[in-house]
């Protein structure tokens, strides 16, 4: 991060990834996550050690919900740094209109950029080898990622381009549900966001410390996939069929700007 990166107000919006699901290392086992970790590191780098931080993200939120529920309150806080991450919950659903999802993201980035705020955003890893059903959404995810790159370039947003990095799908940085980053994954994402503020850094550096992974045999992998389907995929389908969300009844964990 350069010595000129001075920020006073950081606001994070989005879904479970930004809420911090998968990193229960906060007080009393609460979710911490990349955004909290990034804010803590960013505060230490400020000349006076001061940073105001709010996190409006809620798990399970679709892109339209993020725009409708979180974006206006975020802008009202007048952030000079904002993370806009979302859309994966839409893209993994059958029948997703990727253009509509990208339209929401484009509109938010356009309005945020007009305020002069620095925008942080990402692409997503290729799900092909992450879950048994990954191939069913890989083309949509690739289309989504292409659109995210175009949007970021159009509005001057800082993009953590994860998709091309093979190590980003390493199961050692993901929870057993293969959908949420684990603590190690959140630590890497926090570092990645910090690297975005250093224009000469490469995202691939995030995974340099991972030793070669031992490949599981077919029978062992099939057993893991069967467990994943029963423990995580079937309940996810159940929520879709009943119109429920993992975020039902939840509120943002840090809805107001507070000192880090």
**What distance separates the N and C termini?**
19 Å
List the total number of helices.
Answer: 8
Q: What does the average pLDDT come to?
A: 89
Q: H/E element string?
A: EHHEHEHHEHEHHE
Please indicate the percent range of residues in DSSP E strands (runs of 2 or more).
Answer: 5-15%
Category by helix and strand content: alpha/beta
Describe the biggest sheet?
6 strands, mixed
The portion of residues assigned to helices is: 40-55%
Strand order of the largest sheet: 5-4-3-1-2-6
Overall 3D shape: globular
**Low-confidence blocks of residues:** none
Q: Could you tell me the radius of gyration in angstroms?
A: 18 Å
What is the CATH homology-level superfamily?
A: SGNH hydrolase
What fold name goes in the CATH topology slot? Rossmann fold
Overall number of structural domains: 1
CATH class, anyone? Alpha Beta
Task: Give the SSE layout.
Elements: E1 9-13, H1 16-19, H2 33-45, E2 52-55, H3 63-76, E3 81-84, H4 88-91, H5 98-114, E4 118-122, H6 134-155, E5 158-160, H7 183-196, H8 218-242, E6 254-259
Structural account:
It is built from 8 helices and 6 strands. The chain has 260 residues and is of the alpha/beta class. The protein has a 6-stranded mixed beta sheet, sandwiched between helices. Strand 4, helix 6 and strand 5 form a beta-alpha-beta unit. Helix 2 packs across helix 7 and helix 3 runs parallel beside helix 5. The two termini are 19 Å apart.
């Amino acid at each position: 991060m350069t010595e000129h990166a001075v920020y006073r107000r950081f606001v994070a919006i989005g879904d479970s990834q930004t809420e911090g699901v998968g990193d229960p290392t906060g007080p009393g086992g609460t979710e911490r996550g990349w955004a909290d970790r990034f804010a803590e590191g960013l505060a230490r780098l400020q000349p006076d050690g001061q940073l105001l931080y709010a996190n409006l993200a809620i798990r399970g939120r679709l892109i339209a919900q993020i725009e409708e529920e979180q974006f206006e309150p975020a802008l009202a806080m007048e952030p000079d740094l904002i993370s806009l991450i979302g859309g994966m919950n839409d893209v993994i659903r059958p029948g997703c209109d990727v253009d509509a999802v990208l339209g929401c993201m484009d509109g938010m980035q356009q309005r945020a950029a007009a305020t002069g705020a620095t925008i942080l955003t990402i692409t997503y890893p290729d799900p092909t080898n992450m879950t048994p059903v990954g191939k069913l959404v890989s083309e949509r995810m690739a289309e989504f990622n292409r659109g995210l790159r175009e949007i970021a370039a159009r509005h001057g947003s800082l993009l953590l381009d994860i998709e091309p990095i093979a190590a980003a799908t390493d199961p050692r940085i993901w929870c057993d549900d293969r959908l949420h980053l684990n603590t190690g994954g959140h630590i890497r994402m926090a570092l990645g966001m910090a690297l975005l503020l250093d224009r000469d850094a490469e995202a691939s550096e995030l995974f340099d410390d991972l030793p070669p992974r031992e490949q599981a045999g077919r029978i062992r992998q099939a057993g893991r996939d069967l467990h994943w389907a029963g423990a995580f995929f079937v309940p996810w389908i159940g929520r879709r069929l009943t119109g429920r969300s993992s975020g039902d009844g939840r509120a943002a964990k840090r809805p107001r700007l507070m000192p880090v």
